[in-house]
Design a protein that fits this description.
This protein has helices spanning about 10-40, 60-70, 85-90, 110-120, 135-140, 155-160, 200-210, 225, 230-235, 245-255, 280-290, 300-305, 315-330, 330-350, 350-360, and strands at about 45-55, 75-80, 95-100, 120-125, 145-150, 165-170, 190-195, 215-220, 240, 255-260, 290-295, 310-315. It has two domains: about 45-170 and about 350-360, Rossmann fold (3-Layer(aba) Sandwich), CATH 3.40.50.2300; about 185-350, Rossmann fold. Helix 1 packs parallel to helix 14. Strand 11, helix 12 and strand 12 (about 310-315) form a beta-alpha-beta unit. The strands form two sheets. The chain has a six-stranded parallel beta sheet with strand order 2-1-3-4-5-6, sandwiched between helices. It has about 375 residues and is α/β, with parallel strands linked by helices. The radius of gyration is 23 Å and the shape is globular.
Length: about 375
């Protein structure tokens, strides 16, 4: 009979395992914190400019742009689409920057842009939803002085529509929101994916369902219950509905591996049938969170991250499954890649870096 006060062998093993896990987590976060301190982000003095920014309603992107403009210009006014012409008249900005111009914008959006231009204000739009709504952006783009698109395939197309000043400008990460952090147990996972169940994603996860059911998997987003044939296998791992950027950041920081899978571009409103060549904002946000990212490949990915050194890539569900197994069993290699991506993101891929480039283009310094 075991004596009172003596710990069981299972208890000793549990204590050792808990100590090792705590030490490993502390080491990872300590390295991340050292990286954050060494890479504070954009450090140039702000330009003597007044900018009126009109948000789209993509919270993580809008927060990032506001964060970036706050660092790059001397005066920032955050307006709204319904009254942007009146706001331009009131504040006399050097630039009115509109994010995307879709979905939530009023019917008189383009009339307001014409009024703003008639005041002598520069106008620029940054499309962040290309190429999925080309039927609408074809109408919008020619009304602006400068057109910026995050999608490589769209730049020449906008020029073909008669837009004189078109520039490819990738998205980025808000490093105030997306950053490594100590995360509560409910946000921890082996594999995490956040996104809507577009048809290509549903097919991908159907082929991965049995494998992912054997891991601590978290899938967050809408339409999974109706589009995933193997929903029953993953039902207890799926959290439906919208998740705020702050919650997303916690799930990313708490995951060993974050999957990224771009949506298909064969969409009803992509009437120009343009391909998707550019990475989504999640690519930067995951990297900024200190987690290993496993992503499908788009053409411009190597311009921003080095596959195999800063980010892991796959081209099929089978390859993704193999790499998940591989990296879950190689903690040192997994974390080293995550740290490399974190450094790259904070040095090069913040919204302040992007807005600095945009302003240089508009005001003739590029």
């Amino acid at each position: 009979m075991q004596k009172t006060g003596h710990r069981s062998k299972a208890g000793v093993r549990g204590s050792k395992e808990g100590y090792r896990k705590g030490w490993d987590d502390g080491y990872h976060l300590g390295m991340c914190e050292a990286i954050v301190r060494r890479t504070p982000g954009y450090a140039s003095p702000p330009k003597n400019l007044r900018v009126l920014y009109i948000p789209q309603g993509f919270e993580s992107v809008d927060r990032g742009v506001i964060e970036g403009l706050s660092q790059t210009v001397s005066a920032l006014i955050v307006g709204n689409a319904e009254t942007m012409a009146d706001q331009a008249r009131e504040h006399a900005p050097d630039l009115v920057l509109v994010m995307n111009g879709l979905h939530v914008f009023p019917a008189d959006h383009l009339e307001q842009v014409a009024r703003i231009r008639a005041m002598g204000c520069r106008t620029a739009i940054w499309f962040a939803d290309d190429p999925y709504f080309t039927v609408e952006t074809a109408e919008i783009a020619p009304h602006y002085d400068w057109v910026f698109t995050h999608e490589l395939s769209c730049a020449d197309w906008y020029r073909s529509l008669g837009c004189a000043n078109v520039h490819y400008l990738p998205l980025a990460a808000s490093i105030a929101c997306y950053r490594p952090a100590h995360i509560e147990p409910q946000y921890r996972s082996d594999v995490c994916f956040i996104g809507t169940a577009f048809p290509n994603r549903a097919l991908f996860f159907d082929r991965m369902a049995e494998f992912l059911a054997g891991l601590r998997t978290v899938i967050i987003g809408g339409l999974w219950e109706t589009r995933l044939a193997n929903y029953s296998l993953l039902q207890d791992r799926i959290r439906p509905g919208f998740t705020s950027p702050d919650e997303c950041a916690k799930y990313y920081a708490g995951a060993k591996i974050v999957l990224n899978l771009h949506r298909q571009t064969e969409e009803e409103k992509n009437t120009a049938n343009l391909p998707g060549k550019s990475i989504n904002p999640r690519t930067y946000e995951i990297a900024a969170s200190g987690a290993l990212q496993l992503t499908d490949i788009r053409e411009d990915l190597p311009l921003y991250y080095a596959p195999g050194r800063e980010i892991a890539v796959y081209s099929s569900p089978e390859e993704a499954q193999h790499k998940i197994r591989y990296y879950l069993n190689r903690e040192s290699e997994r974390r080293s890649m995550a740290w490399n991506a974190l450094v790259r993101t904070r040095k090069e891929h913040t919204y302040a870096h992007r807005l600095d480039r945009l302003l240089r283009v508009v005001f003739g310094e590029a």
